[in-house]
From TrEMBL:
This is Peptidyl-tRNA hydrolase. Catalyzes the release of premature peptidyl moieties from peptidyl-tRNA molecules trapped in stalled 50S ribosomal subunits, and thus maintains levels of free tRNAs and 50S ribosomes. CDD domains: PTH. The lineage of its organism: Bacteria, Pseudomonadati, Pseudomonadota, Gammaproteobacteria, Kangiellales. GO terms for molecular function: hydrolase activity. Its main location: cytoplasm. Pfam families: Pept_tRNA_hydro. PANTHER family: PEPTIDYL-TRNA HYDROLASE. The record marks D95 as: Stabilizes the basic form of H active site to accept a proton. Keywords: Cytoplasm, Hydrolase, RNA-binding, tRNA-binding. Its EC number is 3.1.1.29.
């Protein structure tokens, strides 16, 4: 398996979206940057906040696109082209409706599942779906007509706490993943249950 060189957290830009469920992917990357003391800076040529630094012994690039969610791929494509990073060397963290708050899933490849950030990323990477996804559970509002309002809303304090605890675990397991120990990282991340059952 090729090693991960770029970690992306999907989000919508602007303070009004900062704490909304759709930005859960970015919460993970922000926490990762904090934990490893890697400062972000605005990088216009990459259409986002960009950072690079050491996580364990690996030099990793971090990106939070500053485009809207449905244009996320533009930023990812810019970094990937500039640094010659293949899709399978990219980890994209994003919010996931299909799993509960406080749970995580790691997967390689797959479709976009209706997620506009993933849809644009796949398209901008030349329809290559082989990037890795860290799916951060946010739960589902129950009906698809409510999804837009739900993802653009803020989680309840309990849900936010569960998501934060799951993200802490993901940050802790990131070096395992970067070392190439995929099975161990998956086993640990998939057993994380921090939400109210």
């Amino acid at each position: 398996m090729s090693s991960i060189k770029l970690i992306v957290g999907l989000a919508n830009p602007g303070s009004q979206y900062q704490d909304t469920r759709h930005n859960a992917g970015a919460w993970y990357v922000e926490e990762l940057a904090r934990a490893y003391n890697i400062p972000f800076k605005v990088e216009n040529k990459f259409h986002g906040l960009f950072a690079k630094g050491l996580i364990g012994s690996e030099e990793i690039k971090l990106l939070i696109p500053s485009t809207f969610m449905n244009l996320s791929g533009k930023a990812i494509q810019a970094v990937a082209n500039f640094y010659k990073i293949a899709p399978e060397e990219i980890l994209v963290a994003h919010d996931e409706l299909d799993i509960a708050p406080g749970t995580l899933k790691l997967k390689k490849g797959g479709g976009h599942g209706g997620h506009n950030g993933l849809r644009d990323t796949i398209s901008k990477l030349g329809n290559n779906k082989e990037f890795i996804r860290l799916r951060v559970g946010i739960g589902h509002p129950g009906h698809k007509s409510q999804v837009t309002g739900y993802v653009l809303g803020k989680p309840s304090p309990d849900d936010r706490n569960a998501i934060n605890l799951a993200i802490d675990e993901a940050v802790r397991e990131t070096p395992t993943l970067l070392n190439g120990d995929w099975d161990l990282a998956v086993q640990r991340l998939h057993s994380v249950k921090t939400g109210a059952e």
